[in-house]
Amino acid sequence: MASVAVDPQLSVVTRVINLPLVSSMYDLMSSAYLSTKDQYPYLKSVCEMAEKGVKTITSVAMTSALPIIQKLEPQIAVANIYACKGLDRIEERLPILNQPSTQANTCFPNLDLDVCLKNNGRFLTSQTVVKLYL
Q1: Domain boundaries in the chain?
Q2: What pTM does this model have?
């Protein structure tokens, strides 16, 4: 197994967000959310109120949690190192994570999400069964 050097300044959250599959799916979902808000004015006002509420709650939570986070910084750093190593293993086993969603979708063109969810993590297509080993 090849060892991948992990930048100590790079958090596992940043690495996950920067995975091509995750970032392209985020862009896709964000675009759908924004276009839906633009199409439905009443829904837009409800969504904007919810967004303001989430921002306020997040701000208060971060302010309250900051002293605890600072106190636990060494433990968080160790957990981040192990999480990054785990992410390395997942990336090795699932190269699809390094492809944008448009490319990943071509790997499973006949994917039926309901069937996938009902079959405990096995992706079923009309031609093959692919089991994910994590």
Answers
A1: 35-93
A2: 0.64
